[in-house]
Amino acid sequence: MTKRALDLRLHRLSPDDPAIGASYGNLAMLTVSTGDYEDSLRYSELCLDIRMKNEANETENISCTYLYYGWCYARMGNMDKAEEFFKRAIGVMRDRFGEGALGLKPQTMDLYQALGREEDAYKAHLDAYMIGKDLYGPLSPRIFTSLYKLAWSMAKTLLEKMEKEAYIVHIARTQYLLAAILAKLDEEEASEELKEKASAIGKELNGPSWEPRRGEADFDQLVFFHDR
């Protein structure tokens, strides 16, 4: 449908019409999602070329086009190029609206998320929410999106932290169970070393000592723990 829309616009409009640029932009994002990265870069270039011809009136759209490049390079794993284009997107908005502008925040969030800097992305969401609240009032529909993204970012960050700690807990518990088995095999030095590692993880997470509730661990308990 997106290509069909482009064909119709090319038939009815001039090649440099902003609507044509918008169609190329849509195709750039579509082909990123399908993994056709070379096509995405080509569509982004066509989109940017049209939008640069209308630069005075297309500031935000030019910034968005740089985002298309950024997300494409991020998906390709070329994080240096991704960061370059995300920063271009931010620079366009900063030059037009100033450092603290609300319109600057989405580009900043995209940069941080692409680079895996979730804490910085969360702070950018929070900044956007606070700016929007001051501009439009706390109950304005304009800030609902910022509030939603803030909640999503916070929940995502917390869930990732929980997932990581749960995995660490799994490691520590396994270390303690192995230590108990080594102790039964009279491998006391190796057993104590593993116990110390497990205890260190417990202290780091303010968690338990990983000692089994009913006596020492045995091989059956270790297998059950891994298989469940």
Automatic annotation (TrEMBL):
SUPFAM superfamilies per record: TPR-like (SSF48452)
Membrane-spanning residues: none
UniProt KW keywords: Repeat, TPR repeat
Signal peptide: none
Placement of TPR repeats on the sequence: 63-96
Listed PANTHER family: NEPHROCYSTIN-3 (PTHR45641:SF19), TETRATRICOPEPTIDE REPEAT PROTEIN (AFU_ORTHOLOGUE AFUA_6G03870) (PTHR45641)
Annotated protein name in UniProt: Tetratricopeptide-like helical domain
